[in-house]
Amino acid sequence: MRRLTQKWKQMTANMLDLPQDVVQDIPRITMIGNVQLYVENHCGVLHFSSEMLRLQLTRGKLEVSGKELVIRAILTEEVLIEGIIADIRYMP
């Protein structure tokens, strides 16, 4: 049933020419060099330190590691991180 719902959402997005991240509630990640990262559609911060950020996603987790990490802005579903970003990992 869940797979059918996902296919229906994807077909609807394709027909209406909507972005996949909006319809399927998946994250949109924008990175500027290795100094700034903007993540949309997250479900909350699980862990934050100056060397690691872990975000809960609808499906899985996102882990960002680096140095001197700072959360510049955080909203309900958006977060802006700055610092020296070394690695980004998606964990299903």
Automatic annotation (TrEMBL):
UniProt cross-references to InterPro entries, sorted A to Z: Spore_YabP/YqfC, Spore_YqfC
Organism superkingdom: Bacteria
Pfam families, per database record: YabP
NCBIfam families: spore_yqfC
Descriptive protein name: Sporulation protein YqfC
